[in-house]
Structures are given as C-alpha cells and as structure tokens.
C-alpha cells in the first residue's frame, strides 16, 4: 500500500486507459446504460472513466486513499469508495457486473476477493490480468534477471485463477489472450515490448510497480546499461525474437454467474 502512496502523484504521467483494452472489457460486460457496475482496484480511475463513457453507471473502489483522491479529483460526480477487495461494503448482487485491470496479483487473499466479487455481482466479472506463465516469457528479464523470480512469485497462474473463481461461486470461466500492440497507450510492465526506450525512461519506469518497489535503484543499473547498449546497437531485437508470446502477453478473463 505504501508503494502506491508514493506512486500516486506520478501515476497518471505514464498510466492511462488504453482504448482497445477498455473496449474489450466493455464488450465482455455487455452493460446497459443504467446498469450499476463496479471497477475494483480502480487506482486513479482511468479505466473507470473510460468504461463509464461506454455504458453502465460505474463506481470505483480502491484500497489506497492517495490513488483514490486522484480519481475523485478527475470526476467528483462519480462515486468512489475506499475499501479492500476482500471486504466490499455493498449488499449482495448490488452490481450487474464487476471489472478489474491488473489488480488480481495484489489481492492478499484471491479466493476471499473473488468470493466478495461473486457476492456483489449479478452476472459477470471481467478481468485483465498478467499470469505467471505469460510474464515468465517477457524479454525484459534478460536485462533484469534478479527481479524475475520475486515478481513471478506474486503472480497467479491461469489455472489458479480459474480454480479460485469457480470456488468463489462463478459457474463459467473463460479466457482470451491479449498481445501487446506497438500502439498501446497504458504504461504497465510490458508496455515496452516493442519500444525498449520505455525502460530507459525513469519516469515511465516509476509507473511500473516491478521497478518502483525497489528502494535501491542501483540494483538495476547494470541491466539498464546493458539495455542501453543493445538499443544503440539494435541487438535488443534478438531478445524480442527469442521471447515466446504464443499464448499472449496478458489475459482477459470472464467469470459468469
């Protein structure tokens, strides 16, 4: 939580709602204009606002007050609630649908969070997530190998999420792969898949929890120097060519009641 206290002032410098991701979530949810919907772990509200413009009446929830204050400043007429995913302050089936973007790996107790989501939703839960299997194939680990194991340890596998969602009471769970595009507008971890300069920019790195969680930037100094050299020579393309994205870089998930 302290990580996002520090990140809140600069978060929106690099993080924003990507139109393609927002539209795909909206298509999964199939909301009518007046359907109540929840954006869980909404952060500064980027995707909440994008989805609200596409249909449904959205409310944002986040456990971090500093991030939520940024969302409130953007859209004071929307409802924003400071709460944890594992303990949502809403009645049963209060929402038609729930959505969340790149938050599942932050849940302290995934089963408890999914159980709460199932309790408060009537129909669908859509998520955009990174899985352990997909993330392990990112070419960036060639330059930052010491981060790989600790970061992967925080991520769920696709199977683990499926099992937890079904245990939480969802009847049908489906997944769709997502490949990062050169035109991606959001600045999450693999945003530099086709543009390694992303990782050489300290402001853009600061929007990625994988880097900003480190108190000592010297831990990745050697990796940045090696990446800069390979960018200058064009050698980084070899790492991209060797990476395996057959199953996508991220996943869209849909859990239905």
How would you summarize the topology of this molecule?
Layout lengths: L1 H13 L4 H11 L6 E5 L5 H7 L4 E6 L2 H10 L4 E4 L12 E7 L8 H11 E9 L2 H4 L9 H8 L5 H10 L4 E7 L18 H4 L1 H5 L2 H4 L8 H13 L2 H7 L7 E7 L1
Parallel strand pairs: 1-2, 1-4, 2-3, 4-5
Antiparallel strand pairs: 5-7, 6-7
Helix pairs in contact: 1-4, 5-8
What does it look like?
The protein has 257 residues and is of the alpha/beta class. The protein contains 13 helices and 7 strands. It has a 7-stranded mixed beta sheet, with helices on both faces. Helix 5 (110-120) links the parallel strand 4 (95-101) and strand 5. The two termini are 31 Å apart.
- Report the strand count: 7
Low-pLDDT residue intervals, each spanning 5 or more residues: none
Structural class: alpha/beta
Between the first and last Cα atoms, what is the distance in angstroms? Answer: 31 Å
Number of helices: 13
What is the percent of helical residues?
Answer: 40-55%
Q: Taking strands numbered 1, 2, ... along the chain, how are they ordered across the largest sheet? A: 3-2-1-4-5-7-6
What does the radius of gyration come to? 18 Å
Based on the structure, what is the oligomeric state of the protein chains? single chain
SSE string:
HHEHEHEEHEHHHEHHHHHE
Key features of this structure:
alpha/beta, 18% strand, 42% helix, 257 residues
Short description:
The protein has 257 residues and is an alpha/beta fold. The protein has helices at 2-14, 19-29, 46-52, 65-74, 110-120, 132-135, 145-152, 158-167, 197-200, 202-206, 209-212, 221-233, 236-242; strands spanning 36-40, 57-62, 79-82, 95-101, 121-129, 172-178, 250-256. The longest helix has 13 residues, at 2-14.
């Amino acid at each position: 939580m302290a990580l996002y206290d520090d990140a809140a002032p600069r978060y929106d410098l690099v993080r924003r709602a990507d139109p393609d991701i927002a539209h795909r979530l909206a298509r999964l949810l199939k909301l009518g204009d007046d359907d109540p919907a929840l954006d869980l772990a909404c952060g500064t509200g980027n995707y909440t606002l994008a989805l609200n413009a596409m249909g449904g009446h959205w409310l944002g929830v986040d456990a971090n007050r500093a991030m939520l204050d940024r969302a409130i400043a953007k859209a004071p007429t929307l409802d924003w609630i400071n709460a944890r995913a594992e303990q949502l302050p809403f009645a049963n089936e209060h929402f038609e649908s729930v959505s969340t973007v790149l938050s599942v790996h932050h849940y302290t107790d995934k089963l408890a969070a999914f159980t709460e989501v199932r309790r408060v939703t009537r129909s669908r839960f859509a998520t955009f997530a990174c899985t352990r299997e997909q993330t392990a194939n990112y070419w960036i680990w060639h330059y930052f190998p010491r981060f790989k194991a600790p970061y992967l340890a925080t991520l769920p596998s696709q199977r683990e999420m499926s099992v937890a969602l079904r245990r939480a009471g969802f009847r049908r769970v489906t997944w769709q792969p997502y490949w990062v595009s050169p035109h991606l507008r959001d600045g999450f971890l693999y945003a530099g898949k086709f543009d390694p300069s992303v990782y050489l920019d300290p402001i853009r790195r600061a929007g990625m929890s994988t880097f900003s969680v480190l108190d000592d930037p010297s831990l990745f100094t050697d990796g940045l120097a090696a990446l800069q050299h390979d960018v200058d020579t064009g050698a980084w393309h070899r790492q991209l060519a060797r990476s395996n994205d057959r199953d996508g870089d991220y996943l869209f998930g849909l859990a239905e009641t």
